[in-house]
Write a structure and sequence with these properties.
heterodimer; A: alpha/beta; Rossmann fold; 3 domains; 5-stranded parallel β-sheet; 17% strand; globular; B: alpha+beta; Phosphoribosyl-aminoimidazole Synthetase, Chain A, domain 2; 2 domains; 9 helices
């Protein structure tokens, strides 16, 4: 496949791997966080860790949109879906997130609720037009990548004069999450989480550009390399981070130049600014309340705001006590550090959100990487 | 049965295969049902055993081992590029029978029809079944029809059951994979699932992808003739090659190592999977098989497969290894390794 295979070339990967091995300083270790679930997935799926020397550690960040949505919001969505006359639409992965009592949107659907999986936000408008007797609610989630398409459908709904369409908005912001991690006591003071640099988001950066990361590089002295989601992108970004760290630089570099401009996609940014405004604070699974980290629908578009139309209450539900998703999302722990990983919590029966989406750190490790521990056990025995 | 006979049928008007539709009376055992059976099923499936019009088909038993398999078909949409639920229901069951190395002999078919289903569509489906059965030379010798109220079904559900005879000396089973064995597939992976998905999800992709739905009896007969000591045959339908290999690994208590660069996958399938966030290893096939044989038999078996029109793209994709954890692993094109795990729930598209 043109434009895909070039970025999955094994020979080139081995060359980059050789350079990484050559240039990595053996007397130190490198702790690099890939922010995005897309990167986590690529690292696991292509076995990138196998190509890296032992002193390079990848930390899986909180950039999996499904994983960071708090259970309270999933509970809200389930209650909405159970409301008579409502059709709830959302993206595929959302449907499997378990709540505290073991419910999920998929199970709610099985019990008779009308819940539809969509590939594109545009599908929700069609569903609303085809079902004038129903209230169609789009459960909108995701980072800056999925926000502009939500803005588009809200504007379309207004232009079409749809009275049976609304959006339950859960869009969150990447830069706030990164700063929250960098400001957390574990990273800043205690040094519990050694964090030397970031692989910056791919698709998110196509929208927001590379400029928003300048602050982290400057303020926290951490290098950021924006990288695409293909495995060679990730390898190249790791090499670029190592070079920066070796040279004592902390800059924002862009590996994903084929898609990311410094200023991003202005049109998309303007659309988002027109339809959404900042929330004072928003709960993130694993990070808790993060100030100014999420968006809500502006009052001009209030008629399309499901939170207002359905008077959605704010529910806060704690994670299962044994679940380490919070610590894993902050980079404090690895999936295999969790006592219930792979035993009680599996992709069939996910307890925590990191096991739900294939972009989640736990699911990615369970599906693609757990043979490593099993093989290691065997060698020790 | 057409009315060649002496008794005039109790109905005067023919079934309206142009504008008519399935009604509750077509399943209630009266004249209407007999008319549907006569004018549609008997006409299409016509054979000696069916013509006896008994509730069962009666045939001579044979010495040796027989196999039997059943499969229900509930596909949406009912018609798709490369086939329809009718041909699929014949191919699916024949393939399940022949994965034992057997020669398929007879089929039975059960229909659940939804009230209001167009008779024209039903005729297309039944004729497609008849054609598939005739091509495979496996007659449909008995059947059943039920009608459910509108809203209680999805047009047509078809269950087919097949029996077959295993030649002497053939002993193929999914618990016979041994470390060192080679793993072969008969052709490109995921064609059927992606062809269906592109229709079902209303994605406006335009590509010439067709379902691979086909009966594998002839291919299997040739493979068994070349390699009587075949260890495992399996058709990787739902859940794709990944699921089938995990099942075999567990049944045989072995592990497997696949080589990503050896997997035959059509470019449109790869592209659609890429776009939808799916993995072609988990996508369904309906005219492909996995074969596992001794390493010394692999090249000859592959050469035989390549001479068959249904296995021109056959390839050796990996080998069986010793592993009591029964992991199916893959060496990625990238040079790393990963687990090719059991599918968790349905394959859902990723968000980012």
């Amino acid at each position: 496949m043109k434009y895909i295979d070039e970025f999955r070339d094994g020979d080139l990967a081995r060359k980059i791997a050789a350079n990484i091995r050559l240039e990595a300083d053996h007397s130190r270790s490198y702790h690099l966080m890939e922010f995005c679930g897309g990167h986590t997935h690529a690292i696991s799926r292509y076995g990138i860790v196998d190509l890296l020397p032992d002193n390079i550690h990848m930390i899986h960040g909180p950039g999996c949109p499904v994983c960071v949505l708090p259970i309270g919001r999933v509970e809200n969505a389930i209650q909405l879906a159970q409301t008579p006359g409502v059709i709830l639409c959302s993206y595929g992965d959302m449907l499997r997130i378990p709540t505290a009592n073991g419910m999920s949107l998929l199970k709610t659907k099985a019990q008779g609720a009308d819940i539809r999986m969509v590939y594109s936000s545009a599908d929700t408008i069609k569903i609303a037009q085809n079902n004038p007797q129903h209230q169609v609610v789009f459960l909108a989630i995701g980072f800056e990548t999925t926000t502009p398409p939500t803005a588009v459908v809200i504007k379309q709904a207004q232009a079409l004069g749809l009275t049976n369409f609304s959006v339950f908005c859960n869009h969150v912001l990447t830069p706030s999450a990164i700063s929250h991690i960098l400001q957390s006591p574990e990273v800043r003071q205690l040094g519990v989480v050694p964090l030397d640099g970031f692989i910056g988001p791919a698709h998110v950066s196509t929208v927001i550009g590379s400029q928003p990361y300048e602050y982290f590089a400057e303020e926290f002295q951490k290098p950021v390399v924006i990288a695409g989601f293909e495995p060679l992108d990730v390898m190249q970004a790791i090499l670029m981070l190592i070079r920066q760290l070796n040279e004592g630089r902390a800059e924002v570099e862009n590996e994903f130049t084929r898609a990311v401009l410094p200023s991003g996609n202005r049109k998309a940014q303007m659309l988002v600014a027109e339809v959404f405004e900042l929330r004072r604070s928003f709960e993130w699974r694993g990070l808790g309340l993060v100030p100014y980290s999420a968006l809500k629908i502006k009052s001009n578009y209030a008629e399309f705001d499901a939170e207002q139309r359905f008077q959605i209450p704010s529910i806060s539900i704690a994670d299962n006590k044994a679940c380490e998703c919070g610590a894993i999302l902050r980079g404090v722990k690895q999936p295999q550090d969790c006592k219930i990983f792979g035993t009680v919590c599996t992709p069939e029966n996910p307890i925590g959100s990191c096991m739900v989406s294939s972009e989640g750190a736990c699911a990615a490790h369970y599906s693609y990487g757990r043979w490593r521990e099993t093989n290691a056990d065997r060698m020790e025995n | 049965m057409t009315s060649k006979g002496k008794i005039k049928p109790g109905y005067t008007r023919s079934l309206d295969f142009k504008n008519g539709c399935v009604e509750m009376v077509h399943g209630s055992g009266g004249r209407a049902m007999t008319q549907l059976i006569d004018q549609l099923f008997m006409t299409a499936f016509d054979n000696d055993l069916l013509r006896q019009m008994n509730d069962q088909a009666c045939f001579q038993s044979v010495a040796g081992r027989m196999v039997m398999s059943t499969d229900s078909h509930v596909i949406t949409p009912l018609f798709f590029p490369g086939g329809d639920i009718g041909s699929l229901s014949v191919h699916g069951t024949i393939n399940d029978v022949v994965m034992s190395g057997a020669k398929p002999t007879y089929l039975a078919a059960g229909f659940i029809l939804e009230e209001g289903f167009p008779l024209s569509d039903l005729k297309r489906i039944v004729e497609s079944m008849a054609k598939a059965a005739q091509e495979a030379q496996v007659p449909i010798v008995t059947g059943d029809t039920k009608v459910v109220e509108k809203g209680s079904g999805d047009g047509v559900f078809i269950t087919t059951t097949g029996v077959g005879i295993v030649p002497d000396g053939i002993n193929i089973s999914s618990n016979k994979a041994q470390p060192g064995d080679k793993i072969l597939v008969s052709g490109t992976l995921g064609d059927h699932g992606i062809a269906i998905m592109l229709l079902r999800e209303n994605l406006s992709f335009h590509c010439a992808l067709e379902s691979d739905s086909a009966s594998l009896h002839d291919l299997v007969a040739k493979m068994v003739a070349t390699t009587p000591n075949l260890h495992v045959l399996r058709d990787p339908t739902r859940g794709g090659v990944a699921t089938a290999l995990n099942e075999i690994a567990r049944q045989s208590d072995v592990g497997m190592m696949l080589y990503e660069d050896k997997l035959p996958i059509l470019e449109p399938v790869n592209a659609a999977c890429e776009f939808l966030g799916l993995d072609p290893l988990y996508v369904a096939n309906e005219g492909k098989l996995i074969a596992i044989c001794k390493p010394e038999d692999a090249d000859q078996l592959l050469a035989t497969m390549h001479t068959h029109p249904l296995a021109k793209n056959a390839a050796i994709i990996g080998e069986v290894i010793e592993d009591h954890h029964c992991f199916v692993q893959m060496e990625t094109r990238f040079g790393g390794k990963r687990v090719v795990d059991w599918l968790s729930g349905e394959q859902l598209p990723r968000i980012c």
